[in-house]
Amino acid sequence: MVTTAVVAGVKVDTRHWIGGQRVASATTFADVSPLDGTVIADIARGGQAEIDAAVAAAKAAFVTWSRTAPAERAAVLHRIADGVEARLEDLAQVETMDNGSLLRSHRRGVMPRVAMNFRFFADHLLTLSHDDFDTRGHRNHITWDPAGVTAVITPWNAPLMLATWRIAPALAAGNTVVAKPPEWAPLTASLLADIATEAGLPAGVFNVVQGLGTEAGAPLTAHPDVRRISFTGSVPTARKVGEAAASNITPVSFELGGKSPLVIFDDADLDLAVDIAVEQFDNSGQVCLAAVRILVQDGIAEEFQRRFLAKAAHVVQGDSRDESTGIGPLVSKTHLDRVDGFVQRAKSDGVTVLLGGEPNHELNLATGGFFYLPTVFADVDPTMEIVCHEVFGPVLTLQTFTTEADGVAMANDTEYGLAATIVTGSQDRAERVSSLVSAGTVWINCFFVRDLSAPFGGNGRSGIGREGGTWSFDFYCDVKNSVFAPKGWSAHG
Q1: Left (φ > 0), alpha (ψ -120 to 50) or beta: where does 285 sit?
Q2: Contacts of 164 (CB under 8 A, 6+ apart)
Q3: Gap between the Cα atoms of 425 and 303, Å rounded
Q4: 3-state DSSP call for residue 250?
Q5: Neighbours of 17 (CB within 10 A)
Q6: Alpha-carbon distance 451 to 461, whole Å?
Q7: What is the pLDDT at residue 24?
Q8: At CB < 8 A and 24+ separation, what contacts does 214-219 make?
Q9: In whole angstroms, what is the distance from residue 89 CA to residue 106 CA?
Q10: What is the β-pairing status of strands 39-44 and 28-32?
Q11: Could you give the 3-state DSSP secondary structure of residue 368?
Q12: pLDDT < 50 positions in the chain
């Protein structure tokens, strides 16, 4: 059985990583590149047996790792960050082939953020504290104690960055981890296992089990020895994860879908508004935070639409490895068909197609890839599927509103609440509207500015909980209060 693949010139082990060893499975699944539709690797296909072995290895390793001094754990995480930086080009090349995202984005933003995830939480661990306080002469002392084995299940749109956003704080907290990477883009998780091992992370502290959601993800989330579950993905899958976690009373952190608004007021800088709107096509719209519902005050709607469409029409779609490319492919043929289903149903509902509205047939025929034209719809009804449900592709809707109150109401007219973006020239309006919009993150006159110390998460169907900074440690730890009496101590200590 073949146990390695060479992807973009990089050797990747396609077996699981369990207890410090590579482990094969009896069967494999095909990993297909969205750039050209070719199979780039055959991946070990794990299930209950591999999950049981990985959780057992993580549980055993927890005994020592949880008692390792914070400074020593932090040092290991910094060495992992060093390893990520040393192999940044390998990671970027492999992930571009694996999920189709732009190579330049991986080089300049995504993979540096992976290293930053480890460095930030390593440093934050060493500052984690709460002042002691007094209760009737008794001293209260707060600590963050490691919780146990952590399951990390992440999606394919930014596989390594989103995984390490959870893996890093879990490891820093003293937990051990079993990661289930996405079946559509699993390769960089395997490279991370190599990097972590070279950095001196003890065997069993970090484990990777590859496989399908129903075969590997389901037994992982239902495992009685898993003490934390961090899941990023769809609402339907989150329901299943939540049901499994509930049977073991396992705490969960969910980052789910979004249908975020971009609210543009008539006092906005139109050039800025257009730039932010076009940015929503980033990663072919496969971004949970994307402001896919563009809401424009009617006094500027016509001029905004003209400028926006002109700029969007000139975004280059093509090979993600080319520096001139602005939009790459969707992750798979299955996902392309799903996105196209939304689009064709919207067209049947009577929307106006301002841009795109179909797969990029010419490019797909030439390359074998899964490209979808950037698409913009107008004349949409707020009850339409295309407005209410997450498409997760390069598909935006354009609506207008009259008053500020109308804009706020339309922004909040969704079951989701992950993010919102506001463009206005008035600071008073910015403060007022941001306080009224229901979202975990609100950007004003900017987009996608993230600080790892800030809380991140969603309202409504966009998720449960907040991560980032101390909020991450609050989740990955058991927070303890020890109350000391003012007297009664032995003189002998």
Answers
A1: left
A2: 114, 117, 118, 192
A3: 17
A4: coil
A5: 26
A6: 23
A7: 98
A8: 215/45, 215/46, 215/47, 215/48, 216/45, 216/46, 216/47, 216/50, 216/51, 216/180, 217/153, 217/180, 217/241, 218/244, 219/47, 219/48, 219/51, 219/52
A9: 9
A10: antiparallel
A11: coil
A12: none
Sorted by where each starts, the structural domains of the chain and their CATH numbers stand as 4-256+462-481 (3.40.605.10), 261-444 (3.40.309.10)
At residue 23, what are phi and psi to the nearest 5 degrees? Answer: -130, 130
Q: For residue 89, what are the contacts with CB-CB under 8 A and spacing of at least 6?
A: 107
**Ramachandran angles phi, psi of 2, nearest 5°:** -70, 130
Q: What is the pLDDT of residue 488?
A: 73
pTM over cut 0.90: yes
Q: Minimal CA–CA distance to 397: which of 409, 405, 386?
A: 386
Alpha-carbon separation of residue 332 from 35, 156, 336 (angstroms): 9, 10, 6
Q: CA 10, 392, 28: angle at the middle one, nearest 5?
A: 40
Which pLDDT score, from 0 to 100, does residue 489 have?
Answer: 73
Pairing of strands 149-153, 176-180: parallel
Q: Cα angle vertex 91, ends 185, 27, to 5°?
A: 40
Distance CA 261, CA 253 (A): 23
User: What burial class does residue 379 get, using C-beta atoms within 10 Å of its C-beta: 0-12 exposed, 13-18 middle, 19+ buried?
Assistant: middle
Give the span between the Cα atoms of 381 and 73, in whole angstroms: 53
pLDDT given for residue 246 in this prediction = 97
Question: Helices H, strands E: what count in the chain?
Answer: 17, 24
**Nearest to residue 211, comparing CAs of 361, 359, 14, 364?**
14
Q: DSSP assignment of 443-488, as one string? A: EES------TTS-B--EETTEES-BSHHHHHHHHEEEEEEEE-SS-
Q: Which residues are catalytic?
A: 255, 288
pLDDT score of 18: 98
Please work out, in degrees rounded to the nearest 5, the angle formed at the alpha carbon of residue 163 by the alpha carbons of 127 and 215: 135
Cα distance between residue 15 and residue 60, in whole Å: 21
Other Cβ atoms within 10 Å of 427 Cβ, number: 10
243 three-class SS: helix
Query: Quick one: which of 167, 163, 206, 204 has its CA closest to 182?
Result: 163
